[in-house]
Amino acid sequence: MPSEFRKASDVINALFSGFDSEGMRQSNAFVRGWSEAVGEKIASHSRVIDVDRGVLTVEVDHPGWNQQIQYMKKRVLGTLSRSFPELELKTLVVRVRTEGAQPYKRQDAPVGQGVTRMTPERDSEHEADVPLKEGLDPELKDIFSRLKESIKRGKPN
Predict the structure, then answer these.
(1) Domain 21-96 belongs to what architecture?
(2) What is the pLDDT at residue 129?
(3) Which of 13, 53, 97, 135 is buried most deeply by CB count within 10 Å?
(4) CA–CA separation, 15 vs 124, rounded Å?
């Protein structure tokens, strides 16, 4: 066999030789502990991002899940602290994931641009003439009539 070929087991061993298997085991145990502490439903919408100097950072996919976790914060920290005392957890920080969210973009065109206005020619074929309710206060009836006419005329060009 040429020297450039190696056994698959040698390649895999070389690949994983730098990993701390005990650290990976503890990390997996902590993630499972998170799931048990908050429940499967919340766990499916959140993930542990980091644990650093007693601060547990969690990311959620919607602000509503942030509220749920904040409501349970004391109990969750107590449960995780008892299971993982070596982490010395003091607080829990929740952040809402924003990736993929479209930021607000101001409309370039003036409001109403591109909206077809009624013209006298189109008015007759599209107008749904809704009569004003009888018994309305005459002043209110006058206001509604003027509003209707204003809408018919549309925005001046």
Answers:
(1) 2-Layer Sandwich (3.30)
(2) 65
(3) 97
(4) 77
